[in-house]
Design a protein that fits this description.
By secondary structure, the chain is mainly β. It has one helix and nine strands; from the N terminus they run H-E-E-E-E-E-E-E-E-E. Strands 1, 2, 3, 4, 5, 6, 7, 8 and 9 form a nine-stranded antiparallel sheet that branches. A hairpin with a 4-residue loop joins strand 2 and strand 3.
């Protein structure tokens, strides 16, 4: 396996695991009792993007995310890193957990929701990948922090 892909995979795994701990940031509290309605909205912020085809990382790039409620607890999540990457995920949110995990055979998404007053913040990682022989090849990856402005 390519050494850089292994390092990237380890970094993404660490970010995902650290997301399970209490947030140390000021005033941000994990949204423990948040239904699907709490996730809906437009978010903007920054992220670190990795291009597998270029084998290059771009730090602190603009990152946008929209979460739309399709019906009931069904959500569509659109993540855009302008000029680099765009991906959509669909899932249902049937619990009140502070995270969403959408595994897949060619892409995956992990999100954590925190609140501070009427503001919402999502940290997460979206990846697109493929398998070649016995290797996982990351085509695109973005780890980001986005905020939904106050209502």
């Amino acid at each position: 396996m390519n050494f850089r892909v292994i390092i990237l995979f380890i970094n993404i795994l660490l970010v995902s695991l650290l997301g399970c701990k209490k947030d140390n940031g000021p005033n941000w509290i994990y949204c423990q009792e948040c239904s699907a309605d709490n996730w809906i909205g437009s978010y903007s912020g920054q992220g670190d993007y990795f291009s597998g085809s270029e084998n290059k990382q771009y730090l602190q790039v603009e990152t946008l995310m929209d979460i739309v409620q399709l019906n009931g607890n069904a959500l569509q999540m659109n993540i855009v890193v302008p000029d680099f990457y765009q991906v959509s995920f669909y899932t249902t949110k049937d619990d009140n957990e502070y995270y969403i995990n959408v595994p897949g055979s060619n892409k995956s998404l992990y999100l954590v929701l925190a609140k501070s007053g009427s503001q919402s913040r999502i940290t997460g990682t979206a990846k697109s990948y493929r398998y070649k022989v016995d290797s996982l090849i990351v085509d695109h990856s973005v780890s980001f922090e986005v905020i939904k402005p106050e209502k």
